[in-house]
Each structure stands twice: as structure tokens, then as C-alpha cells.
């Protein structure tokens, strides 16, 4: 969670995501916003990310890419092997994720939905760069959605850096180490994000199959610096820019921190993309029919 907010809310405004998107389009094929929806194959899988910094690595892996506008939403459509995949950035938080998921289900009607992106670790075993495939997702109020995975303990143990467990969805950044530990213990959760429960609930309403893949961007023992946490808590762009300016003025070294986080976010996005490219072709065997 830490990487996503620092990068998306500050560095993206400085043009970092624009540069990467341009590179992504050149590698994957020319994405054309003027392509009509009827001119591209219908995706059987939709992968939902909150932000472009999370989706960039995966979109670079797709072939025959086109970007189409479907009833007001931009959807990147491409091929992963023989499978047609759609990629949609939902925006941050449960409300945005729920709305985008319902739109994707109504407009595209995919067979599979994948909720992907960054997450914060809540247990010591999960380090930055580890991957979580939740078998259930909960919130602090007690809501719960099961995700039936067809993975044995032997398969999980044989995959270094992979964890299966409970994912906690919350409504704000969790940057304090003690709070992360307490949340992990209170909810028996291994990781925390801000969207997956909303995606899961929308999929359950429409009887669509969901799988979630999250990469750990900040481990449980990696705190969010207080000045940067204050910057990210601003509700408006102008407030955030003002807080960012104050942060840089008071601590010039924060600029280096942000650039380092940008590099780590790109690395996390690439690693997440590699894992997704292994999972998506095997969705039929990865999920258990209940």
C-alpha cells in the first residue's frame, strides 16, 4: 500500500506514469483509443487494478493490444497466449472498485475476474515482493467472501514467495507498524488492501468467478514515514501538492525517497505481471468449483 500511494499521488503527477505508458504501448503494440468495441475480441478475463502504476507491467506483457472506450471506461484489450484479456484501472478504494467491477461485469460479461495490485503485509513471514493469493477476503466490520482456490499445501510450499490466506480490505492507508501487526492478529489476515472485498462482493452479486493476486509492496515492519503519511492523507490535489511542497522543504531527502519508491513500484509491478502471466492461462485448474 505504501508504494502505491506515494508513487501514484506524487510521482505520477511528475510524469513518471506517462513515460512508462508510452513505453508500454511501443512494446505491446499500438494502443488506439479510437478503436470501436466491436472491432476487438471480447475478453473472457478482466483484470482489475486500482492504478496504472500497478497495471503497467502486466499490460507490457500483452500482445495485439488495443485500448477501447466501453460506455465511458477505457479498457485495454490484448492477448495472453490464446486468451483474450481486458485490463481496467478502477481507481482507489472500495466505492470506485465496486462501481468499476459492476460496469465491467455488465459491459464485458467476462467469465473470470482477477483483482490484482499491491498490498501491505500484516505478518512477518511476508516480505516485500512476496505474492498473496487470498482464499478469503474480509473487512473490519465482519463482511467476508470466500475465494475457493484449488491449491494444495504441497503446491503452495513448493512455490517460494507465495502465501495463501486472508486478505483484509480497509478504507485508508495503514502505515503504522504496530497497527499493521494488530490488524493482522485481530482478523487473522496476512495482508491488507483497499479494493478486493468490494470487487469480490460485486462478483458474488453477478455469480462471476473471482481470483485475487496481490504483491507485497510494504512489509509489516516497514512503516510509512509520518511526513509522507500526512501528505497522502490530503483529500484534494491542491492540498496534497501543498503538503508535498512542505515535506520537501522540511526534509529535502524525501525527494530521493520518492524516486527510490518509484523504482521499487516498477519492480513490484513487473514481478506481479510475471506471476499473473503464469496464473491466467491456468484459471480453470487454479479455482475449485463449490
Q: Please report the distance between the alpha carbons of the first and last residues.
A: 31 Å
So how many helices? Answer: 11
Order of helices and strands: HHEHEEEHEEEEHEEHEHEHHHH
Instruction: Please name the fourth-level CATH homologous superfamily.
Output: Nucleoside phosphorylase domain
* Overall average residue pLDDT: 80
Q: What coarse outline follows from CA principal-axis ratios?
A: globular
The count of domains is 1
> Helix/strand-derived class?
alpha/beta
CATH architecture call: 3-Layer(aba) Sandwich
The residue fraction in helices comes out at 40-55%
Which stretches are low in confidence, meaning pLDDT under 50 for 5 or more residues running?
2-31, 233-237
The CATH class label is Alpha Beta
CATH topology: Rossmann fold
Per DSSP E runs of 2 or more residues, the count of β-strands stands at 12
Instruction: Compute the CA-based radius of gyration.
Output: 18 Å
Major sheet: size, sense and barrel closure? 12 strands, mixed
- Beta-strand content bin: 15-25%
Protein name: Nucleoside phosphorylase domain-containing protein
Organism: Bremerella cremea
GO biological process, one term: L-methionine salvage from S-adenosylmethionine
InterPro entries: Nucleoside_phosphorylase_d, Nucleoside_phosphorylase_sf
